[in-house]
Amino acid sequence: MSEVRTRIAPSPTGDPHVGTAYIALFNLCFARQHNGKFILRIEDTDQVRSSKKSEDDILKALSWLGLIWDEGPDKGGDFGPYRQSERSDIYAEHVRRLVKEGHAFHCFCSEERLTELRKQQMIDKKPLGYDGHCLLLSEGEIAENLNKNIPHVIRMKIPSEGCCIVKDMLRDDVSIEWQQVDMQVLMKSDGLPTYHLANVVDDHLMQITHVIRGEEWINSAPKHLLLYQYFGWEAPVLCHMPLLRNADKSKLSKRKNPTSIGYYQRMGYLPEALCNYLGMMGWSMPDEQEMFSLEDMIKHFDINRVSLGGPVFDTEKLDWLNGRYLREILSDDEFTQRFSQWAFQPEMLQAIVPLIKQRVERFTDIAPLASFFFSGMPTIDLQSFEHKTLSQDDSKRVLQFIAWRIEELEAWHRDRIEQTLMQLADSLGFKIRDFLFPVFIAIAGSSVSTSVIDSIAVLGLDMTRARLRHAIEILGGVSKKQLKNLEKEYSALVHQSEQS
RNA sequence: GUCCCCUUCGUCUAGAGGCCUAGGACACCUGGUUUUCAUCCAGGCAACAGGGGUUCGAAACCCCUAGGGGACGCCA
């Protein structure tokens, strides 16, 4: 049998996600266990949302966790380039081939038509998907449309009947009717491929033998399998892992949980502890040992020990594990070293110094003033939020709106944050000073502190959101009913500001 | 709405028809150690979603029901 090759294929559209690390870990273990290779490929075909910054962050985060790849955009390999944006020609060529061989077709349908179509399908209680409108176009009409430069996409053809059997390493064969499968867009109107096409082409060209990915992909597996068939390629073995969950069992999301790897780094978790913890999500060592290194995991890895129930990503056990690493594994010297590495990161200090410099008279003033940058959640209670004009409900509302507002920011820059907060204060009709009061408490634990906007910029999205959420909980939390009302008010607010 | 997947203590899990009166761990509670606290140690609480089969025997295999989740984008 040929060499085992697995891959992780993150899309650089935000902060590095623990889910990415989770899937990377299992791909890495599987590959290593079979003396195979583990590949990192960047799926940046979404031109609008992808960024180089995010790509760099992902590479850094995975390295920090010790999840090292053998081939990737930064270290090359025999099957490059490993960044999909650099492989456009390859996809274009493959799409041409599919069209020529009659497996794919041009589609000139407008967005409006598609939206309308979906609406109608919903009413008719039919599966949602493309209706094959452009399939009826004659060659002449297609040529004419192309000549006129009408924007178009390429869609794949799907058998009209029968069903597709998806084999999976972890479960029984999954059978999905072709009628349920959409005529997926393979190439967007910007000429770039969609995930489905790029993924299949790359996995084949990069000789990936085992695709270990999240369960969310099961339903699109038929499309992928069909593409392999169209191309006449052998499909890799598929394996769909359970999804990491929020406490309410929904798919792990940043709205309900901190999901960025950077957050856990900043919260003072050791990479080996986080890695260990991810390893016990849906998997266990044969002897049920709970503390194990990446090497241990690779050595004893058995993909069949993956259990299918979606594990709740609950940090209580991570806390306990991390504590054990800290006090049982690290020697005093190592502890010292690791702690100073964590605490004295030049980047972080350089960001903080300008904020505190003008407020100190001695170095001893620094710790009390800046400790909140290095802490987890601030110690605050209901009394902390007492204010002469702002009620606790006001505070709660302000914090909730800010939490929602900042997650919509496309870039995390001080000025953007400031602008956003000012706008929000304005549209809520609060004085800036009053408006920022609960924010100070939530972020710094005190209203006597460095600029809260700069502090937010330094702390980052996930840490900020975690503190806002923490503060909201202290203020009594938000009931379902309240949440509904707040959401209503919020969307009205956003609507209003969009119009002005 | 349509389809797909999943279901063991609150949480992570063990369990491959008899070792199951269901084991371990976190959390929680109690006690001990400790000048305090933490650590550490000892103990306790706590689950096979429900119903029907198959079988001498079911947590495990099959069916139904319920619950949860996911997918249904020119996002990945």
Radius of gyration: 26 Å
The number of distinct helices, counting runs of at least 4 residues, comes to: 20
> What fraction, in percent, of the residue positions are helical?
40-55%
Strand segment tally: 9
Provide mean pLDDT, rounded.
93
Which structural class is indicated by helix and strand composition?
Answer: mainly alpha
Most strands sheet: 3 strands, antiparallel
Name the overall outline.
globular
Order of strands in the sheet with the most strands? 3-4-7
User: Which stretches are poorly predicted, pLDDT < 50 over at least 5 residues?
Assistant: none
- Tell me the strand percentage band: 5-15%
- Order of SSEs, N→C? EHEHHEHHEEEEHEHEHHHHHHHHHHHHH
Separation, N- and C-terminal Cα atoms: 64 Å
Topology:
Layout: E1 5-8, H1 18-33, E2 37-40, H2 52-64, H3 88-100, E3 104-107, H4 111-123, H5 139-147, E4 153-156, E5 163-166, E6 174-177, E7 185-187, H6 195-205, E8 210-214, H7 221-231, E9 237-241, H8 261-266, H9 271-279, H10 294-300, H11 315-329, H12 332-343, H13 346-356, H14 366-374, H15 392-406, H16 414-428, H17 432-444, H18 452-459, H19 461-474, H20 480-499
Parallel strand pairs: 1-2, 8-9
Antiparallel strand pairs: 3-4, 4-7, 5-6
Helix pairs in contact: 1-10, 6-7, 9-11, 15-16, 15-17, 15-19, 16-18, 17-19
The structure holds one RNA strand of 76 nucleotides.
